[in-house]
From TrEMBL:
<dbReference type="InterPro" id="IPR025110">
    <property type="entry name" value="AMP-bd_C"/>
</dbReference>
<protein>
    <submittedName>
        <fullName>Acyl-CoA synthetase</fullName>
    </submittedName>
</protein>
<dbReference type="GO" id="GO:0016874">
    <property type="term" value="F:ligase activity"/>
</dbReference>
<keyword id="KW-0436">Ligase</keyword>
<dbReference type="InterPro" id="IPR000873">
    <property type="entry name" value="AMP-dep_synth/lig_dom"/>
</dbReference>
<dbReference type="Pfam" id="PF00501">
    <property type="entry name" value="AMP-binding"/>
</dbReference>
<dbReference type="Pfam" id="PF13193">
    <property type="entry name" value="AMP-binding_C"/>
</dbReference>
<dbReference type="InterPro" id="IPR042099">
    <property type="entry name" value="ANL_N_sf"/>
</dbReference>
<keyword id="KW-0443">Lipid metabolism</keyword>
<dbReference type="InterPro" id="IPR020845">
    <property type="entry name" value="AMP-binding_CS"/>
</dbReference>
<comment type="similarity">
    <text>Belongs to the ATP-dependent AMP-binding enzyme family.</text>
</comment>
<dbReference type="GO" id="GO:0006631">
    <property type="term" value="P:fatty acid metabolic process"/>
</dbReference>
<feature type="domain" description="AMP-dependent synthetase/ligase">
    <location>
        <begin position="26"/>
        <end position="405"/>
    </location>
</feature>
<dbReference type="InterPro" id="IPR045851">
    <property type="entry name" value="AMP-bd_C_sf"/>
</dbReference>
<feature type="domain" description="AMP-binding enzyme C-terminal">
    <location>
        <begin position="455"/>
        <end position="529"/>
    </location>
</feature>
<keyword id="KW-0276">Fatty acid metabolism</keyword>
Length: 541
């Protein structure tokens, strides 16, 4: 029997439009045209200007033949042109491919070829890297060079490519930009790190970007005219969708080319920053900055962090400095954060230790995420909610990727059983909050027992001399694997291997104590995540 509520009630353009975050900028420019949208050094851009420049970019791209299904790649730091690309590229129907500026030329070349890039916009600081990558590609994209007046050393590079401002001048600021034909249309492609072979291209759609951007505004309690400081790279999961989120609240983007303590603290003091995101090492930069660099904060600043939970002493330092830290969790495949540690007011009255334990949990699903579970990957059944039984974290909902570009096998594997398999191992607490224990590839199996590298790292962070700790598996003739700890000591602090071993024995079961301690610099990604695959290589793993 037909549903009577569908009879003669078909969707039409008057009551059904594809969801896209591009409408947020349209609205902001219409409602608050004179509100400052972007601060970059001495430059101030209003929402009227931001919208017109984004439309100019879309128009100029369309004039070069770019349209639905075409790829525009960008190799840019956190600068205004990167924000313009997040709107201008999809406004002409194309797909945005933001490239990690810390990658090597070979990896960039692979991404350009795999994504089928037809245009590459590059900051002049990375022009030599881009040129090296283009020497290795099969594609031959048009090269557009962005010359940032805030670039250290200054100067303009006009030796190759088309100047970005000249390119924009070819576009129409009143360009009638394209709404996606379907909200399932791709808005971006982002590549995973590719620690085991070539990186995978994660395809995101307009609907997911729209919903995640709105979820950010709700989860972060963004007020109207919020001021957001860009310490999280925009090339990382499209900056967790915050380039689109800020237009919702008529907020101001404060751009930073480099994540260093001096410009961060200066921006916090000069621009009334209300929100910023970053990995735990960014927090360490803030709290360890010299006293003459730090600025007193006359208001609370919300800091959202992901990756491994920050050490207790860093959390305490951030709280003392005037920051409120919230733990998030997600992946490139979930548009960035899709899990949040929703804080209960009654937890504020707890003693520091139990409060910190609660702060370290990843939490519950974002508002636009339909389902979040910790499951046994073999039976596809949820694990007991006891805070102890290990399982794989899985997602289901509208903020999960379309799939992996040109990789149906990987897509099928990721979506096996109707859930997205994160590859992260965790537990579910009785109150429904999840807590990560490790990546599946980072779990150390010693004599048949699972050892969480995060648990060992947490114990090491309790030692006052430890600034950064990373624990990976090391081959062992008897036990198969045992933990090996890489250590960066805090400035002015000393510690011996024997001292750290004894410290671990006081905080861990004996089989979890690292058998080796290596004191050296620990490699990180551009987003501050520790590269454990590089550490394993150092051990010959």
């Amino acid at each position: 029997m037909a549903n009577p509520f569908n009879t003669d009630l078909a969707p039409n353009p008057a009551n059904f439009q594809p969801l896209t975050p591009l409408t947020f900028l349209d609205r902001a420019a219409s409602v608050m045209p004179d509100q400052v949208a972007i601060i970059h050094g001495a430059r101030r851009s209003t929402y009227r200007e931001f919208y017109r420049r984004s439309r100019r970019l879309a128009s100029a791209l369309a004039n070069r033949g770019m349209g639905r299904g075409d790829t525009v790649s960008v190799l840019l730091p956190n600068v205004p042109s990167m924000l313009e690309a997040h709107y201008g590229v999809p406004m002409c129907g194309a797909v945005l491919h933001a490239i990690n500026t810390r990658l090597d030329a070979k990896t960039i070349a692979f991404q350009l070829d795999h994504a089928g890039a037809r245009i590459l916009i590059v900051d002049s600081e990375w022009l030599s890297l881009a040129s090296e990558a283009l020497d290795l590609t099969e594609v031959a994209p048009l090269l557009i060079v962005y010359n940032d007046p805030e670039q250290p050393g200054g100067g303009r590079d006009t030796s190759s490519g088309v100047d970005y401002e000249s390119f924009l001048a070819q576009g129409n600021p009143d360009y009638a930009w394209l709404i996606p034909k379907d909200e399932w249309d791709a808005i971006s492609i982002s590549y995973t790190s590719g620690t085991t072979g070539n990186p995978k291209g994660v395809v995101s759609h307009h609907r997911g970007a729209y919903l995640l951007a709105q979820g950010n505004a709700l989860i972060a309690s963004l007020p109207r005219y919020a001021v957001y400081l860009w310490t999280l790279p925009m090339f990382h999961c499209n900056g967790w969708c915050f380039p689109w989120t800020m237009s919702l609240v008529f907020g101001t983007h404060v751009c930073l080319r480099q994540v260093r303590p001096e410009p961060i603290w200066q921006a916090l003091g000069d621009h009334g920053v209300t929100h910023l995101c970053g990995a735990p090492p960014v927090m360490s930069l803030l709290v360890s900055a010299a006293h003459d660099v730090r600025r007193p904060l006359d208001h609370r600043v919300d800091f959202f962090t992901a990756a491994a939970p920050p050490p207790e002493k860093v959390l305490a330092g951030m709280e003392a400095a005037g920051f409120n830290v919230t733990q998030l969790y997600g992946l490139t495949e979930t548009y960035g954060p899709a899990v949040v540690n929703e804080w209960h007011a009654e937890w504020d009255s707890l003693a520091p230790e139990p409060r910190t334990r609660l702060k370290a949990r990843q939490g519950v699903r974002y508002t636009p995420l339909e389902q979040l579970e910790v499951m046994n990957p073999d039976t596809m059944e949820p694990v007991p909610r006891d805070g102890e039984t290990l399982g794989e974290v899985m997602f289901r909902g509208n903020v999960v990727m379309k799939g992996y570009f040109r990789n149906p096998e990987a897509t099928a594997k990721a979506f096996a059983g109707g859930w997205f398999h994160s590859g992260d191992l965790g537990v579910m607490h009785p109150d429904g909050y999840i807590q990560l224990k490790d990546r599946s590839k980072d779990i150390i199996i010693s004599g048949g027992e699972n050892i969480s590298s995060i648990e060992v790292e947490d114990a090491l962070y309790k030692h006052p001399a430890v600034a950064i700790a990373a624990v990976v598996a090391m081959a062992h003739d008897t036990w198969g694997e045992t933990p090996c700890a890489f250590i960066e000591l805090a400035e002015g602090q000393t510690a011996t291997e024997e001292e750290l071993e004894q410290h671990c024995r006081s905080n861990l079961a004996a089989y979890k104590v690292p058998r080796r301690f290596v004191f050296e610099s620990i490699p990180r990604t551009a987003t501050g995540k520790i590269q454990k695959n590089e550490l394993r290589k150092r051990l010959g793993g």
